[in-house]
Amino acid sequence: QVQLVESGGGLVQAGGSLRLTCVASGGPISRYALGWFRQTPGNERSFVGGIAWNGRSAYYVDSVQGRFSISKDNANNMVYLQMNDLKPEDTGVYYCAVERRQFGLGRLPRDFGTWGQGTQVTVSS
């Protein structure tokens, strides 16, 4: 079974940028869509966006549209979340996840299964 490990989180000022990395092991992700989620303590995990299995399309929720970008590096079995113009409301623990099906589009939270351990992102004003 594939395992996911996120990294790249940290403390950043509002307006700054971070790039999160998700490294997969135990199996390839080239045939799978990948997604990113975030969670604030005491709240449920919410969907941020996802990228199709082939990397040709990506979907983002309105709150991050135009600021976040997801990419895949199939050769190294990794996915990235580039976050620009960060806002305090972006604060949370960020998780990557892989879709259960192969060749998916990564647009629906319900389609994702395996999760990483998360990486903390804190945006200060």
Number of separate strands: 11
Distance between the termini: 40 Å
| pLDDT averaged over residues | 96
**Structural class by sheet pairing and helices:** mainly beta
Total helix count? 0
Uncertain regions spanning at least 5 consecutive residues = none
Order of helices and strands: EEEEEEEEEEE
- How large is the share of residues in beta strands? over 45%
Dominant shape: globular
Residues in helices, as a percent range: under 10%
Radius of gyration using CA atoms only: 13 Å
* Main β sheet profile: 7 strands, mixed
Write the layout of secondary structure elements.
Elements: E1 3-7, E2 10-13, E3 18-25, E4 34-39, E5 46-51, E6 58-60, E7 68-73, E8 78-83, E9 92-99, E10 112-115, E11 119-124
Parallel strand pairs: 2-11
Antiparallel strand pairs: 1-3, 3-8, 4-5, 4-9, 5-6, 7-8, 9-10, 9-11
Output the keywords.
single chain; 125 residues; mainly beta; 7-stranded mixed beta sheet; 4-stranded antiparallel beta sheet
Task: Summarize the structure in words.
This protein has about 120 residues and is mainly beta. It contains no helices and eleven strands. The chain has strands at about 5, 10-15, 20-25, 35-40, 45-50, 60, 70-75, 80-85, 90-100, 110-115, 120-125.
